[in-house]
Amino acid sequence: MSTITVRRLDEDVVRRLKLRAAASGRSMEAEVREILVSAVSRPSLGQAWLDLADRVGGIDLPVPERTMPREVSLD
User: Fold this and answer.
1) Inter-axis angle of helices 28-41 and 11-24, to 10 degrees?
2) What average pLDDT does range 23-50 have in this prediction?
3) Residue 69 has pLDDT above 90, yes or no
4) pLDDT category, 19, cuts 50, 70, 90?
5) Quick one: pLDDT at residue 37?
6) Phi (first) and psi of residue 7, to 5 degrees
7) Residue 31: how many other CB atoms lie within 10 Å
8) CA nearest 35: which of 67, 6, 72, 74?
9) Dihedral angle, C-alpha 17, 19, 21, 26, nearest 10 °
10) Whether the predicted model's global pTM rises above the 0.85 cut
11) Contact at 8 Å (CB) between 22 and 30?
12) How many CA atoms lie within 13 A of 45 on its CB side?
């Protein structure tokens, strides 16, 4: 196991961490550990969408018709 130190935390953040920990029935250290594990364990939103598409067998999206760009006069 590793140890980290977080310096210069705002007092309001510490207060809210203590309240959140108490509400969860954990120590502040255990609550911070849970927050960190949760933050690095969940997939990104993009990955979550790709995983969902895989589970439902893919998603077919219409491909828009392409047109030539309009001419621009630089005069």
Assistant:
1) 90
2) 90
3) no
4) very high
5) 92
6) -95, 160
7) 19
8) 6
9) 140
10) no
11) no
12) 0
d(CA 31, CA 23): 10
Encoding tokens for residue 70?
Answer: 């309009």
* Neighbour-count burial for 49-74, b at 16+ CB within 10 Å, e otherwise: eeeeeeeeeeeeeeeeeeeeeeeeee
Is the model more confident about 42 or about 17?
17
Structural domains in the chain, sorted by start: 11-55 (1.10.1220)
**Number of other CB atoms surrounding residue 30 within 10 Å:** 12
Cα–Cα–Cα angle for 43, 44, 48, nearest 5°? 70
H or E stretch at 44: none
Cβ atoms of 43 and 51 closer than 8 Å: yes
Which is nearest to 32 in space by CA: 46, 13, 52? 13
